Amino acid sequence: PGKPKRESTSISGGEKTLAATVFVLALQKLNPSPFYLFDEIDAALDAPNTEKLSNIIKERSEGSQFIMVSLKDSVVEKARLIYGVFPKHGVSHVVKYKDKRLLSSLEN
Fold first, then answer.
1. Fold adopted by 8-79
2. pTM, entire model
3. Pairing state of beta strands 65-69 and 91-97?
4. 47 phi/psi in degrees, rounded to 5
5. What is the pLDDT at residue 101?
6. CA dist., res. 87 & res. 98, Å (int)
7. What residue segments make up the domains of the chain, in order of their start?
8. What is the pLDDT of residues 7-41, one digit of tens each?
9. I need a labelling partner for 9 at 20 to 30 A (CA). Which of 39, 81, 85, 105 fits?
10. What is the dihedral of CA 60, 9, 47, 66, to 10 degrees?
């Protein structure tokens, strides 16, 4: 809102991400799907837009399941379930975190 129309080649990666994600979420209102899979959709977003997007997805998760890959704390903090994937001896391991406080201790 409030921005002039521009060619898609001249907008930032964050603006493209927001436009595409808002389009998907608008379709969700029209024809809901049982789940959505987003892979690092927040990567090109700044902190305020990441926060806004994660709040919207949290609200929408009441009616559908959202599976997201993210490295940003503001997204992970809003998750109901968190799974971590890490390599050990060349093999990927998956861990389910029941307590979000464990994540901060692992980062240090």
1. Rossmann fold (3.40.50)
2. 0.74
3. unpaired
4. -60, -45
5. 64
6. 20
7. 8-79
8. 767 788 888 898 899 899 899 889 989 999 999 99
9. 39
10. 20
